[in-house]
Write a structure and sequence with these properties.
With 362 residues, the chain is of the alpha/beta class. The protein folds into 2 domains: 206 residues, Alanine racemase (TIM Barrel, Alpha-Beta Barrel); 124 residues, Lyase, Ornithine Decarboxylase, Chain A, domain 1. 26% of the residues lie in helices and 24% in strands. The protein has 11 helices and 19 strands. It starts with 5 loop residues before the first strand and ends with a strand. The structure holds pyridoxal-5'-phosphate. Pyridoxal-5'-phosphate binds next to helix 9.
Length: 362
């Protein structure tokens, strides 16, 4: 059966992008970030394709447990750590490494000390003001955390960059500097870089790097597409033209009649909508690709459908394939047209869209 609306997930592209990450950070361990269902690509198939990564990172404990239950034995780092005793217990049972970012977590660890066979990542807030300890508290926090562990416990240090998507932004170097100042008296393993840091800032390549977005073939940088960084897009999102009609000039199209035909047009109806995760906020003019030609979305996005102006593609026929994003229509460009970022687009593809795993273009 030919699927009407589906995503393709190209596992060879994933592996290519992992190799690119290794080229940029040849001396660092790679923590492949596969949170949020591997950025919408499908947790297990992505983890399998990236099994040569040195570790995985996820945000929530259930994501980590799914990996363990599916037999993955790699190191797994829980980026948000734990927030109660039960979660801590589950992580210890399943050998999941924990990010420690707030004092409440240390209070809990102190109840159970000394903890053996555990790896912790002490997170320092160097200016993002999200998770992590203040640098001024570090010299007190670190010994206190260390005191929770038995001899065989391990503590690594990490921080997260806020503005690395803009290579010109001076905050990135400031954050790296603050981190180095804070951790330099200690010899622990460190991690700073996300995808953007990895691609633009050698200073951020420590013992471990934490690429996410770039592994999916998407540029994390505001001024570049994935292709310009030699990345290959992993997800293609496809649908089909399910109807074509001619509409007179001056007619309104779709809910609310917010778009009026400026001239007589051939209007195409595509079988994808916000129920599939195609954002309703997509503005008129956002491109889709039909038979190699970009055509603009017109009218509002419905739950299961959207409409396009086929004036630029007179050859379009009912049942033609429509690419919403993929190798021939960069998701970075689509996201810009919608005034959003590619992260939200791939994460937003809903469960009803089948992910169809491929290896390279067939
Ligand atoms: C999501 C995340 C990453 C990966 O970020 P990308 O921009 O996708 O490379 C790295 N580190 C932390 C702490 C994260 O939350």
């Amino acid at each position: 059966m030919k699927l009407v609306t589906y995503a393709t997930i190209d596992l060879s592209a994933l592996q290519h992008n992992l190799a690119v990450a290794r080229l940029f950070a040849p001396d660092s361990g790679i923590i492949a970030v596969i949170k949020a269902n591997a950025y919408g690509h499908g947790l297990l198939s992505v983890a399998k394709a990236l099994s040569s990564a040195d570790a995985f990172a996820v945000a929530r404990i259930d994501e980590a447990l799914v990996l363990r239950k599916s037999g993955f034995q790699q190191r797994i780092i829980l980026l948000e750590g734990f927030s109660n005793a039960m979660a801590l217990d589950a992580c210890r049972t399943h050998n999941i490494e924990l990010v420690i970012h707030c004092i409440e977590q240390i209070h809990l660890l102190e109840k159970y000390k000394p903890l053996s066979n555990i790896v912790l990542w002490l997170k320092i807030d160097t200016g993002m003001n999200r998770l992590g300890f203040d640098t001024k508290d570090f010299s007190i926090i670190y010994p206190r955390l260390k005191a929770c562990l038995a001899r065989n416990g391990e503590i690594n240090f990490m921080t997260h960059l806020a503005n690395a998507d803009d290579p010109e932004d001076v905050k990135t170097l400031e954050q790296i500097f603050i981190f180095q100042e804070t951790v330099s008296p200690y010899g622990n393993a460190c991690s700073i870089a996300n995808s953007a840091g990895l691609l633009t800032r050698k200073e951020s390549l420590k013992d471990w790097v934490r690429p996410g977005l770039m592994l999916y073939g998407i540029s994390p940088l505001i001024d570049k597409t994935g292709a310009q960084l030699d990345l290959k897009p992993v997800m293609g999102l496809y649908s089909q033209l399910i109807a074509i009609k001619t509409v007179e000039a001056g007619e309104s199209v779709g809910y609310g009649g917010s778009w009026i035909t400026p001239k007589p047009i051939r209007l195409g109806v595509v079988a994808i909508g916000y129920g599939d995760g195609y954002p309703r906020q997509a503005s008129v003019g956002t491109p889709v690709l039909i038979k190699g030609q970009k055509v603009p979305i017109v009218g509002r996005i419905s739950m299961d459908m959207l409409t396009v102006d086929l004036s630029l593609q007179p050859q379009a026929e009912v049942y033609d394939e429509v690419m919403l994003w993929g190798d021939l229509l960069p998701i970075e460009k689509v996201a810009t047209a919608m005034n959003t970022i590619p992260y939200t687009l791939v994460c937003g593809v809903t469960a009803r869209v089948p992910r169809y795993v491929i290896r390279g273009k067939s």
